[in-house]
Amino acid sequence: MVVCGLTTNLKPAPYSILLDAADVEQPGTLRHKSKVKADTLASLDQSILIKPIARLKISVFRQIVAEIENLMRLS
Predict the structure, then answer these.
(1) What pTM, to 2 d.p., does this model score?
(2) What is the sign, positive or negative, of the torsion defined by CA atoms of 34, 12, 3, 65?
(3) Could you give all domains of the chain from N- to C-terminal order, each with its CATH number?
(4) pLDDT digits (tens, 9 = 90+) for 6-34
């Protein structure tokens, strides 16, 4: 499974997408405003995942994927 970094540090940063409670499908599953760091990817074995943090709305997910694709074009 490929995952992006997630931080509650809201300082402006390139390749980051702001998330708040309105961006997830189930209210209350994202407790703090956060930023997805599209430039920080990691590959994890699914067996080490404990539980999901939140399920993003498809429009937000597509925005993150688009940012990753933009980064790939730059390299």
Answers:
(1) 0.85
(2) positive
(3) 2-74 (2.30.30.110)
(4) 999 999 999 999 999 999 997 767 889 99
